[in-house]
Amino acid sequence: MNGFAEEDTVGLPLYEPPPRFLPHHQRQGHPDYDNNLAHFLMRSIKFRRTKAPLGFLIRGGMEHKCPLFVAEVSNDSSAQRLGMKPGDQILSVNGIDFSNITLQEAVEVLKQAEDIEIRLKYFPYAYQKTFKKE
Question: Rounded distance, CA 7 to CA 72, Å?
Fold first, then answer.
């Protein structure tokens, strides 16, 4: 016996080859070589519901065994102006933890809120692995 319960084990992601080689002068700003980690830090955005749609679509949830992600952001919406983008993982809305919530529960939370504060982190790799486009 190794002293670890079975639920304590963590699966490692599959190996991904490094991005193709680019000369140093072409790397700055390139998405495969960008080392600005600020893009991946948790952030909060706040906005007030109006009669217009929120301006973003979400996917995922407990029923799909994955986190909730921003899937699409409408052009010229409040969500886009505040910096939401596809691949943002939704961590919480108005203090409600979104890590163990179904898609329908998440939609209800978003529908009921007038003032909305969303905590996000950009996690495109998990989003792409979870929702591979055919």
Answer: 34
